[in-house]
Amino acid sequence: MNSTSTDSGLIVHARLATIKGRGYGLLDDAGIAWQDGRITWLGPEDQLPEPCQHLRASALDARGALVTPGLIDAHTHLVFAGNRANEFEQRLEGASYQAISQAGGGIMGTVRATRAADEEDLLTAALPRARALVTDGVTTLEIKSGYALTLDGEAKMLRVARRIGKLIGIDVRTTLLALHALPPEYQGRRTEYVDDVCTRWLPYLHAQGLLDGVDAFCEEIGFSVEETRRLFIAATKLGLPVKLHADQLSNLHGAALAAEFNAISADHLECTDDAGVAAMAVAGTTAMLLPGSYYTLRETRLPPVAAFRAAGVRMAVATDFNPGTSPLLSLRVAMNMACTLFNLTPQEALLAVTVHAAQALGLKDRGQLAPGMRADLVLWRAHAPAELSYWIGGAQSEATFCAGVRLS
Ligand code: DI6
Ligand code: FE
Question: How many CB atoms lie within 10 A of CB 8?
Answer without folding.
Answer: 23
